[in-house]
Amino acid sequence: MKLLKKGLRSDVYDLEDGRLLKLYNGWVTEEDVVREFKATNVAFDAGISCAIAHEIIEKNYRHGIVFDLIKGINLRQHITSRPWNVRRYGIQMARLHAQVHAVRRSGLIAQKAQMESAIQASYSMLKPWWNKIMECMEQLPDSPSCLCHGDFSVENILLAPAGPVLVDWSDACAGNPAGDVARAWILIHTPYANVGMPGWAKGISSAVRSSLFRHYLKEYMAITSISNAQCMAWQVPTAAARLKECVPDEKEWLLRIIRNCAHPPH
Q: How far is CA 62 from CA 21, 28, 31, 54, 65, in A?
């Protein structure tokens, strides 16, 4: 069993038989693992390109899921080595995301309920802007009920020989596509993406990420007819919900979005 990746929530191992094991850290509940297993199978059954989830196991008092091993490099690595292809990558992202949102789905956790729970967990940090956040939440639509990935990022898109594959369905839900796009904006622009990069590369990376999102959003709106304004309506609640995840270097950035009601670039 070979370690492939260490993450904030889990470690990923190559089982060296064409499968991999996603082994969650001890604080992740069995309920959360079952949720990802179920959501992955929902996506696969709907025809979305994703890794097949075979079984849930327990190893060293940690829960894990056994998946097919997808041979491919994630989109972030492609963008880093070939930034001149950023327009093509943005279009690929948009088409994949639109395919996910074309699936009408119930039975998964509701998007707004998931978001409200995360926001409540960060009440002490959000108290100065609480009324504004709750007002934004009340104005968000409950429909349509579509399949939403919940963590649509360049790290979770693998470019395999047969095309892009979307992995990590741990935050999947049933909800409004515009909210999933707002979450993608957070994940593409997060300052955490710059951790470990040399100083000279950070500005370039920021420009490329902005370009990536611009091409992604333009193509996504052309496919779906969802407007930029619909996506922006979700930005403040999405930033507030993200705080619960305690991602390094994000706290002040997220609070600034909430405080200023900043709009994503377009």
A: 11, 8, 13, 17, 10
Architecture category of domain 73-260 in CATH: Alpha-Beta Complex (3.90)
Question: Is pTM beyond 0.85 here?
Answer: yes
Which two structure tokens, joined as six digits, stand for 207? 């420009």
**With respect to CATH, is domain 2-68 assigned 2.40.50.90?**
no
Q: At what angle do helices 235-242 and 111-121 cross, to 10 degrees?
A: 50
CATH 3.90.1200.10 domain locations along the chain: 73-260
Q: Given this model, what pLDDT does residue 142 score?
A: 80
Angle between helices 86-101 and 199-224 (to 10 degrees): 50
Q: What is the average pLDDT value for the chain, to the nearest integer? A: 91
H or E, element range at 225: none
Which residue intervals of the chain bear CATH 3.30.200.20? 2-68
Gyration radius from the chain CA atoms: 18
DSSP assignment letter at 16: S
